[in-house]
Amino acid sequence: MEENPVESLAGRAFLVTGGGTGIGAATALRLAGLGASVTVVGRRKEPLETVAAEVARRGGDALAHTADVRDPDAVDAAVEAAVDRFGRIDGLVNNAAGNFVAAAEDLSPNGWRAVVDIVLNGTWNCTSAVARRLIDTGRPGSFVNVVATYAWTGHPGTVHSAAAKAGVVTMTRTLAVEWARYGIRLNCIAPGPTETDGAGSALWAAPEDRERVVSSVPLRRFAGAEEIGDLTGFLLSDRAGYVTGAVLTADGGQSLGRQVYGPPIGDGAVARG
Ligand code: HXC
């Protein structure tokens, strides 16, 4: 008996950028677990091959393909390779990101450009490459773009990433309307702090930083990367067939803020009557 037939991705093929580590790797494994073929794309071959091997070990089918999402020709080649291997493409998870913490006044033009190029231009390069193929072949599709809640709250020290992620949210909403006529759905997922071994954890590498981050989350923990992958699988599936242009926040309540109006009650505080 199939456990959850509606959420199945059986027979479909997706591309996951930044698929070698962290949320991307967990997402690739989840999509494969739902029956999809997966092409994992990233700059470094080794982690991609590790993920592809793990998918195969679990009985799935994955292709590891190296490409920098900043290079439109390399992205086109990745999509081509995915279609050659699996005979189709049904959508994309834009997970590749670049980030580092820097005071805005210290950020060099190249530092700004590197992050905006990966996050905003990279998302566009991949989205347009996959969507053009869907539109040309008259097939529907679904996309999930991994953003962050600071896309709308902003966040000191990450002006490059926050601005780029805000651009991705608006790109998603625009295309959700523009490409609805092709049966293409696009949504964002906005994870809060997520447990990974990858570059994201560099933002809270020191124990005191980690503690500060956890204490800002009402649920008092990091997300598991597999929790984010699970939600992405849902958004890509037909079960979310009426959801487009949405942002699914999975941040343990962190972005709802910590306004303080009185004595602490629970996580925050309430105004005194
Ligand atoms: C200041 C820095 C810097 C740092 C790089 N730069 N790191 N400036 N502090 N820590 C500057 C460099 O000096 C250079 O500018 C410019 O940025 C480009 O750096 P390169 O190393 O040459 O670029 P590149 O090799 O393309 O690397 C891109 C990168 C890198 C973004 C800088 O960190 C990267 O590739 N990261 C990939 C993985 C990653 O970061 N993932 C994090 C995702 S987590 P100059 O002027 O010197 O030439 C995420 C979500 C977090 O985004 C959400 C939390 C809730």
UniProtKB/TrEMBL annotation:
Signal peptide, first to last residue: none
Family matches, as SUPFAM superfamilies: NAD(P)-binding Rossmann-fold domains (SSF51735)
The keyword Oxidoreductase is annotated on this UniProt entry: yes
Ketoreductase domain residues: 12-171
Record carries keyword Nucleotide-binding: no
InterPro entries, sorted: DECR2-like (IPR045017), KR_dom (IPR057326), NAD(P)-bd_dom_sf (IPR036291), SDR_fam (IPR002347)
Keyword line: NADP, Oxidoreductase
Protein name: SDR family oxidoreductase
